[in-house]
Amino acid sequence: MNDEKLDELCRKIYQNHRRALEIILERVGSPESRTLAEVVNTLEKETRWSVVHRSNTYVHFIPQAWKEWLMPHAQDSYPFCVHIRSRKADVVYNMRVGPIEDTAKRSEILKKLREKVREAGFKEIKAKKLDGREGWNRISATDTIVNWGEDDELEPAVIQEAVKKLLDDIFPKLEKLAPVLKNARDNLQGM
Hints:
There is one protein chain. The chain has four helices and six strands, in the order ααββββαββα. The chain has 191 residues and is of the alpha+beta class. It has one domain. Helix 2 packs across helix 4 and helix 3 packs across helix 4.
């Protein structure tokens, strides 16, 4: 079947069965959301981590102990997180800084964290542009946790093992970034 005929058939099926397709995706999920569910299950089994936000394709988490001192900018919304995203043929992660009201302080925090990333053992980001107080900025380069062929489906145990390995690897590295975040918290509170 050529692309035009296939596209037209897909449009007709979607028009006639939109609600059924939405329910199927909601119940079964996409391959990306099933993969992410394995990531989240692995995180939730380990008491040293706290999931602070989740969507269908990504999850944000921080070390559990950091919830005691890392100031949320809104209820359960923290200005720093490890971001894991599930895509069609891989699962990747990076670290991010989110919205902070004081844009000058936010820029200072981003700069310090980006300087410390390499020393902590994470891949350094090449981008230098910083968004305003509303956006999220990466402070580390995106790195692959696990990947597979686009037509393959990965076994849950493989995903879980890859995520466990990542978590063991990044925990001590994050502790090297903690002083920068604690200092930033103290500076923001002192205003």
